[in-house]
Design a protein that fits this description.
- The protein is an alpha/beta fold.
- It has one domain: Rossmann fold, CATH 3.40.50.
- 37% of the residues lie in helices and 16% in strands.
- The protein contains 8 helices and 6 strands.
- A 3-stranded parallel beta sheet has the order 1-2-3, sandwiched between helices.
- Strand 4 and strand 5 form a beta hairpin.
- It starts with a strand and ends with a helix.
- The protein binds zinc ion.
- The site of zinc ion has 8 residues, from loops.
């Protein structure tokens, strides 16, 4: 049995309607200012950046997107190949898991946009719930536990990758 590691990035999700960052219709090409909305320093310092960031997520496709044929092919490979599989992804959309790959076999190097995390107490909760609050009129929802600033559970520009996830990904890449 050979460990198989599949490494994916934004390109696998464009057919699910999630634009990549630097392609022809990429987020940064359409709106260079958008980069500030996902950069840690400005996000933490400026409530207006946070309000725009939440509005961008409300309008975005991330939570409604469905896995496409490529995500499903990887899930089918996991079920049928007999080889141990790990998916190392730069994507934050959760579509590998939505396609049926076991969550413990997916290493999300850049975190997950399906969750939010409190920057003060580090409590995690669901993005869907946070977006419901934004929709209901809280334009910069705070942590319900401690009042801290909430952010998407993704690695923003200016933040480091999670060393634990990165270490696991390195070990898997070497073993594969
Ligand atoms: Zn908190």
């Amino acid at each position: 049995m050979t460990m198989v590691a599949i490494f994916t990035g934004a390109g696998i999700s464009t057919d699910s309607g999630i634009p990549d960052y630097r392609g022809p219709n990429g987020v940064w090409r359409q709106d260079p200012e958008a980069e500030r909305l996902v950069t840690y320093g400005p996000y933490m310092a400026d409530p207006e950046i946070r309000r725009r960031s939440w509005r961008m997520r409300l309008d975005g496709p991330a939570l409604s997107a469905e896995p496409n044929v490529a995500h499903r092919a990887i899930a089918a490979y996991e079920r049928t190949s007999g080889n141990p599989l790990r998916v190392i992804t730069q994507n934050v959309d959760g579509l590998h898991q939505a396609a049926g790959v076991s969550a413990r076999k997916v290493l999300e190097l850049h975190g997950s946009a399906r969750s939010v995390v409190c920057t003060a107490c580090h409590a995690r909760s669901s993005m869907a719930e946070a977006l419901d609050r934004v929709r209901a009129g809280e334009d910069d929802p705070a942590c319900r536990g401690c009042g801290g600033i909430l952010k998407s559970a993704t690695v923003m520009f200016g933040q480091r990758l999670d060393p634990v996830v990165l270490g696991q990904a390195m070990s898997i890449a070497k073993a594969a």
